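Ticket #4471: structure export looks truncated?
Reporter: QA, pipeline team
Priority: medium

Steps to reproduce: submit the single chain below to the structure queue and open the exported record.
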Amino acid sequence: MLRFTTAGESHGEALVTTLSGLPAGIPIPQEFVDRELWRRQQGFGRGGRMHIERDTARFLSGVRHGKTIGSPVAMLIENRDWQSWTDALPVEAGDPSKHKAVKSPRPGHADLAGALKYNLPEARYVLERSSARETTARVAAGSVAKLLLREIGIEVLSHVIQVGKARLQRAVPWEEVLALAAREEVLLNCADPAAEQEMKAQVDEALRTGDTVGGIFEVIAHDVPPGLGTFTTWDERLDTRLAAAIMSIQAVKGVEIGDALLAASSMGSAVHDEIGYRVGEGRFTGFTRASNHAGGIEGGVTNGCDVVLRGYLKPISTLRRPLGSVDFATREPVKAAYERADVCVVPAAGVIAESMVAITLAGAALEKFGGDSLLELRRNYDGYCQQLRNY
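Actual output as written to the record:
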């Protein structure tokens, strides 16, 4: 079973992630992992923190001579901003006068609910762990999961389809998504230049008014074989697991698999993907689909089409023009706390979602094919693919 955990605070010394259950022998190029971390930091509307951090993963265990060795993989990503917080967030008792309290909770953030849950007098420690800085560790783990999936031909990438009211009005083929990921400059990670400029205008308006803006990203898993997941138990359905993985990302408030919103307002004859058969037509089987409204999953099981998911991201909760709140100490009305923050994070959220999808699919692939070594995994996978071709 593939498991991963993260630890660390937004302004703490470092973030740490561990990933266990990987087979031995997966090549782990450092440059790929660091580029994934770089991709997470890109996008128009990111805040000043991205100018401070230059994220890179340091492997502590589980990788030797460039390959996994079967033991848990542990990675550390240093927070460069820590040097400005050593007095405010020391491990030892420290000087209370140097503590930087979050004195008024931000609407839309975990501040108030977290302070109530843990009986804290203010929200500093809530902010430190609930911050999306934690997703840096997820992307590090996800990069390793992506490298595992590549060994069996699966790629996972994302693109942005909406920022604020500006929306991409056409479908984007896989080749365009692949080209987006290769760019060295990232604006809003939209495949259509005209739509991207409309999205930029939405971010510009938020910047001008001291506001924030959300949007929608789409994640595509390409060349996923049929048969991952199950319809037999509710919690092991792959759509259940993928939806939970996307929903776990900070600021995501909704998940769509395939054309779920369209399907909800359509007749069944318009949205179910008709089945055909042509010998030698597909990568895995001769079965074909006239469309992919299901998003590659039927009954909790992959069906051989691309797995397509969308995440609906609310605007970031920290506003330069703060909303009304209440002082923790006095209970008097005040403006919500403000700290350096982003204006738009939709492209970054897409990269984070790629990692969560990759980790989930890698787990499902290991459950299906097994193997303590990459050689054994490939042998089992190849045997299954032959079974599909002989079906």
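Status: closed, not a bug. The export was complete when the record was re-opened. Leaving a note from the reviewer for reference: The first helix runs from residue 30 to 40.
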